[in-house]
Amino acid sequence: MDQDPKERLLLPPRAAANGPNRRGKPTTPVCGGGGGGGGGVAIDVHGLKKRGGGRRSWVRVDAATGASEAVEVAKPALMRRLDLPARDLRLLDPLFVYPSAILGRERAVVCNLERIRCIITADEALVLRDPDADGGAAADVAVRMYVDELQRRLVDRADDLPFEFIALEVALEAACSFLDAQAVELEAEAYPLLDELTAKISTLDLERARRLKSKLVALTRRVQKVRDEIEQLMDDDGDMAEMYLTEKKMRMEASLLDEQGLQGIGNNVFGSSYSAPVSLSAPVSPASSPPASRRLEKQFSFARSRHDSFKSSESSQYNIEELEMLLEAYFVVIDYTLNKLTSLKEYIDDTEDFINIQLCCCCRITSVTS
Prior knowledge:
By secondary structure, this protein is of the alpha+beta class. It is 59% helix and 9% strand. A six-stranded antiparallel sheet has the order 2-1-6-5-4-3. Helix 5 crosses helix 6, helix 6 packs parallel to helix 12 and helix 7 packs antiparallel against helix 12.
């Protein structure tokens, strides 16, 4: 049976015969699952490359209609389509374990929020649906719930928020609700156990308390990361302005229409043979007439470069108040969850101090009586 690619990366400990003081014939790793001789390990590099850059399953939600469909898109195609670097898509890859992150980019918002890993644009939301993701069936249910809730809000459209903020809000709500539910579950298990320990100390309960504290530390770290991401966005007007994808798209389209109108005026004035001056820095294509899609992509690239030149003053061009209010609402929610976990940790620490005092007293009494 083939091993999981992640397991192949875990090198076994070296045998004593292959220690640092022994020189032997070097072994050659065999790719493709074959066994290597002399204590070598086989790493399926080709399999890992195929999995890392292969086609993945996504659920696409259309911004205009709310319709959803399952699509398979390769990583390089997403990078070209959305103008995203590979490191951004790596945040969503189930092969890697990354903390929660919200990234605002030129044409997309990349979200890794607990079980929701999605790419949001002005026209669509792509939600990663991977059977190998952490949580298995539970992660798949979370994806379906996210899609259903996003579709419901698009149909109702109770406010005037642009699509990207609606999709982001659903992702934030799903992550905050999931983390708070885990905190409530941990509280329900911890407080009765700690009260029982203060009444009667037992080895079994001490071990349970130790495991609970480990879970508490891990959960607190995840909650803290989501809180930090929201706070970092609220503190940076430029990052918030970058996430106004619908408005940026409308401005780009208006800019393109203005440029086409100016070109039409130039043709009318100078004749049909006149063509607009070509930038000296623009690459010259050997093809005589590029396809319409390539011309449109070049026009978008020109508009993006113009947008980048004014990026420093972007926060003054956009009214970031609505996004800031949205983020503040979920900052309050996640901060409340963090406070609950902090209180629980303090209660555990107080219980540990009480138990240590009780054990010290018992030891003293035993030593005196003996």
